[in-house]
């Protein structure tokens, strides 16, 4: 069995060094990163008006800080994926550094999105002291396991591989890693993300059914469930797809769907916050920031 795996790894390394294989690796990974950045900009400009009205005037808080961090982090992390695949004649140390920065940035995007959802969940669960500590402990365990485990697995994945430029650098730019046989590390990392998301979804279902659904039905809860359900379904699909890619695809395509997953986490978490704040504003009968200021200065 071990000899068969060794032969397979050797064959994969041989194929990966072919100019055609390197060209396809560069091409598809650049398309994935470019589509992700395009979606980011489209999402940003589509939701900018709501953000200006609902988030900018509010006082600084943990939610607002995480919101803007979550908003900007993909714009910082995803371009490193383009740099990794487009750098002309890169050195091995350059490739390893860019790859590591890209991985940490994408992991941060996912974990910050999870943290934002836990804070929203705490607000909708009633803000009780016992509930606060219960959620803090579970969030700490879930996010810590996902982030620490995923981070350590990523570091192990990076340190166990080797990097170099293209064998045909005049024709095919970018970095190329030799990480055959390490796909199981990424599979476990994606399963940790899925585990963290499933924990959060379980709490959402519990609080919705036990706390609010029977006693305090509200449009806010419907929005939370609508956006939250879509968020967790998308999370599960992307995590499973990335895990399958890490396990079955050649090493050069293992991160093909990682930038889209980071963008999906970020944009869906941001939309959930904006929709919740918009519904809160409508419940108060307020339609604009100027009206909020007017009502504050001229109370009835």
TrEMBL record:
Keywords on record: Membrane, Transmembrane, Transmembrane helix
Keyword Transmembrane helix: yes
Superkingdom as given in the UniProt entry: Eukaryota
Transmembrane segments: 26-45, 98-121, 133-158, 187-209, 230-249
Residue stretches making up the DUF6533 domain: 33-76
Pfam families: DUF6533
Protein name: DUF6533 domain-containing protein
Gene source species: Coprinopsis marcescibilis
């Amino acid at each position: 069995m071990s000899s068969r795996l060794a032969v397979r790894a050797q064959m994969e390394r041989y194929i990966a060094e072919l100019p055609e294989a390197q060209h396809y690796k560069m091409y598809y990974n650049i398309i994935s990163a470019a589509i992700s950045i395009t979606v980011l900009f489209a999402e940003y400009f589509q939701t900018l008006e709501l953000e200006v009205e609902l988030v900018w005037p509010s006082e600084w808080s943990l939610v607002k800080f995480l919101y803007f961090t979550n908003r900007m982090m993909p714009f910082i992390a995803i371009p490193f994926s383009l740099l990794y695949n487009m750098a002309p004649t890169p050195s091995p140390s350059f490739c390893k550094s860019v790859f590591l920065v890209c991985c940490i940035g994408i992991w941060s995007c996912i974990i910050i999105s999870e943290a934002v959802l836990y804070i929203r969940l705490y607000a909708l669960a009633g803000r009780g002291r016992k509930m606060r500590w219960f959620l803090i402990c579970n969030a700490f365990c879930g996010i810590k396991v996902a982030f620490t485990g995923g981070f350590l697995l990523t570091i192990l994945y990076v340190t166990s591989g080797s990097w170099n430029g293209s064998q045909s650098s005049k024709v095919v730019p970018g970095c190329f890693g030799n990480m055959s046989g390490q796909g199981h590390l990424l599979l476990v990392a994606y399963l940790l993300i899925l585990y963290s998301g499933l924990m959060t979804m379980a709490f959402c279902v519990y609080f919705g059914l036990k706390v609010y659904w029977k006693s305090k039905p509200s449009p806010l809860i419907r929005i939370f469930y609508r956006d939250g359900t879509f968020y967790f379904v998308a999370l599960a699909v992307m995590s499973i797809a990335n895990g399958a890619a890490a396990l079955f695809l050649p090493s050069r395509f293992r991160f093909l769907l990682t930038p889209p997953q980071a963008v999906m986490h970020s944009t869906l978490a941001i939309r959930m916050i904006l929709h919740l704040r918009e519904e809160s504003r409508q419940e108060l009968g307020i339609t604009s920031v100027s009206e909020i200021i007017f009502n504050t200065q001229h109370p009835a």
